[in-house]
Design a protein that fits this description.
Layout lengths: L1 H7 L2 E5 L23 H9 L6 E5 L4 H7 L6 E5 L9 H11 L4 E7 L7 H8 L4 E4 L4 E10 L2 H8 L5 H8 L3 E4 L16
Parallel strand pairs: 1-2, 1-4, 2-3, 5-7
Antiparallel strand pairs: 4-6, 5-6
Helix pairs in contact: 4-6
Length: 194
């Protein structure tokens, strides 16, 4: 029974390929005050209970560092943004991951710049396929659970589409998962705000 349950878990995707221009340094490799691990290590630990394996959608700058960081963990795969689509944000990351396994796959996606995200919220998202987190104030398209193949992402990037919403809502057919406003959904944008 345990094996069957494991096979039914989604793959995890952690978006770690952002340029972190406003933050001033790589958010994925940043260690928050009071922590001993990087943001990406903390997110991996939170996501692992709900997933079979985890894909780190990285860029060419942080990709080699992430590969070194997780080289002892065969469940973590680093996937670099495609050179053909520079600065396409999360869509490039999803394109790269789905190119590695183009068949239909269930994914639980998070962004590394939610250091306060709780396992309670992740569990709620994991239990609600085809959804993304929404509070009364904000829509969080980078916190989503969806099933897809590679084809819709290839089509969007070929059309020079940059917006994650175009995929999450229009292509993947995700619906808002309404949750209360919470400090767990605070996004890490500026180091001065820590």
């Amino acid at each position: 029974m345990g094996t069957l349950f494991t096979k039914m878990k989604p793959d995890g995707i952690i978006l770690v390929g952002g340029r972190s221009r406003r933050f001033g340094q790589d958010k994925a490799l940043f260690v928050m005050p009071g922590q001993t691990q990087t943001n990406v290590e903390l997110m991996v630990a939170k996501l692992q209970p709900f997933t079979n394996r985890i894909w780190l959608a990285a860029n060419s700058i942080n990709g080699p560092k992430l590969q070194t960081l997780f080289q002892q963990n065969p469940q973590i795969k680093v996937c670099l943004d495609p050179a053909a689509y520079p600065d396409y944000g999360p869509l490039a990351g999803l394109y790269a991951v789905t190119a590695k396994q183009p068949q239909r796959q269930d994914y639980l996606m998070v962004a590394t710049d939610y250091p306060y995200l709780t396992t309670t919220l992740l569990k709620k998202l994991a239990q609600q396929p085809q959804s993304f987190i929404q509070t009364p104030e904000h829509t969080h398209y980078t916190l989503a659970h969806f099933t897809t193949t590679h084809a819709p992402l290839a089509k969007l990037l070929k059309q020079r589409q940059h917006h994650l919403k175009a995929f999450i809502v229009a292509s993947a057919g995700c619906q808002p998962l309404q949750v209360p406003t919470s400090p767990a959904l605070r996004n890490l944008n500026y180091r001065q705000s820590l």
